[in-house]
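Go through this:
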Amino acid sequence: MNKSLITVLTTAVFLISRNNDIKKEKIVNEKRSMNILLIAVDDLRPELNFYRAHHIQSPNLDNLAAESLVFNSAYCNVPVCGASRASLMTGARPTRNRFLDAHTKKDDDFPEAISLPMLLKQNGYKTISNGKIYHYNKDDEKAWDEIWQALPVFNFAIPENQKIAKNTSRGLPFESADVHDSIYRDGKVTLKVMNDLRKLKKSNQPFFLTMGLSRPHLPFTAPKKYWDMYDRDAIKLPESYMQPETTPKQAFHNFGELRQYENIPNKGDLPDELAKELIHGYYACVSYIDAQIGLVLDELKRLDLEENTIVILWGDHGWNLGDHKLWCKHVTFETALRTPLLIKVPGKTNGKKTEAITEYIDIYPSLAELVGLKSPKTVEGKSFVPIINGEKSTKNWAVSKFKDAVTFIKDDIFYTEWTDAMGVAYARMLFDHKTDPLELDNLAEKPEYSELVESLSIELRQKWGKDFLK
């Protein structure tokens, strides 16, 4: 037998074998449940192109949005990191005594709840926590097959800045360093998630893989190339850079989180140039995490996993960038409550946007339904799968809280009460976003709105949850 004939026969055998492998892999993929890639971004505002804000460069998020269902009216249930994440992962509302602050632990506040990762693990999923998902690494530990954090955990790349951070409360509020993306924590998380995808590709087990990104949380540290994308001279302070006298004093705070960093004044407004530098740093960090997300999504596609993987992306709450002369979160203005939320479901989403009001407790039952699972009784959210399927939402409200402040969001109305332990209001705030989208004119104490305030107060108590005062 001549060499050319041997080559032809060998090639034919290889192709037949390869085709059989592809058919087998296709059958396995059709039989197994849909995978979930969950991307959690710390302190991410909906200040992005697909939310009609066109000054932050985030091409990868734009591309994801073009293949997703984009929620224009998504709200966290509590505007602080630990509490928001515990509430989201259990699908349960915060109360006066549950899910209160950054140091919230699901295991302490609601140990009996079956979390989303636990539900998936109990139903055959490989569950991997990468980066910041819960506030504490060991929280809900039994729900995960693997918990991974980037080490060493440095917020700063420049040795001098590392030294400042070691010898002070938190170090500088920002850094621009001419370094590779993977020097910072989120770059390391990205490499880990990509490697996980390669390993999971070889498994017949469905996966719940998470990517918890730390930026754009303070300090605003990102490689210099992302800072160079923006001209600071073109950055302006927000239009709402004021604190009207009609707004209750309870609505404001001294942004203590920011004041823990070096070179931030202990009280009073920030100098305009410092304020613009912070905004510049925030933009740079968003572009940095956008690049990391792009790498992971490209790897998902390269591995032929995207057609069998739901991708959901959310920011744990909003963030004030000088809005109402405030920085950070910890308030119930829309800037701290409204969040980016995207979900890409293969074969079902295509870039459409919905105005349906959605709460973060709705994420758990929605993902459970999408993979064919029933949510536990402790889940208080409502699935938004009907919206994905093109149906009209029947829900037009949400409830968020922080400390004594409880906000009822209904259509264009934002109504907040500060209540005591018995649920009695001692301050109120009412905004109509049709006429006042920047929330500068509090209507709550105006006589002509007294009937509306009364009806909203009643409805707030009907909607804030049966266990709210417990």
